Amino acid sequence: MKYHLPLVLYDPECPLCVRFKQGLEYLDKSLNFVSVREDEVYTVFPELSRQDCISKVHLITPDKEILTGPEVVDYLVKTLPGVSKLSWLLDNEQGQKVKNYFYEKVEELRELTQKKQEECDQCPRRR
Predict the structure, then answer these.
(1) Gap between the Cα atoms of 88 and 75, Å rounded
(2) Averaged in consecutive runs of 10 residues, what is the pLDDT profile of the chain (127 residues)?
(3) pLDDT score for 83
(4) SS3 at position 35
């Protein structure tokens, strides 16, 4: 399979990740998405680690640079047409702190959601 860049790797078993993907698809039709659970992506991009991709968001830019976590947020803020107008908010130290804090809180919520799913008898089991 040929992957079109930019490519966002997301976890389809994580409700927060799915919502993030849906929001990004709405904002920008040029982004492409692939499940972190798809084996072929690790063959095409051997520098990726499945466990790392499951634990935090990854994006591969058109230049084949791999961005992770808050770097993905920076990239999206600078490149998404509707959002790029607000990129000046992150151009200072305080803006970076706010972005990092927000990202950390979203990560905590994602981890809590995954833990609850693992403990739930009715939820599908992670592979």
Answers:
(1) 13
(2) 91 88 86 96 96 93 94 84 62 68 72 70 52
(3) 62
(4) strand
Where residue 67 falls (left for φ over 0; alpha for ψ -120 to 50; beta otherwise) is: beta
Question: Is this structure's pTM higher than 0.90?
Answer: no
How far apart CA 25 and CA 23 sit, in angstroms, is 5
- The set of residues, in sequence order, having a beta carbon less than 8 Å from that of 16 and lying 6+ positions away, is 106, 109, 110, 113
The tokens describing 126, both together, are 């992670």
Length of the chain, in residues: 127
> At 13, phi and psi to the nearest 5?
-90, 0
Give Cβ neighbours of residue 51 (< 8 Å, ≥ 6 apart): none
Amino acid at 74: D
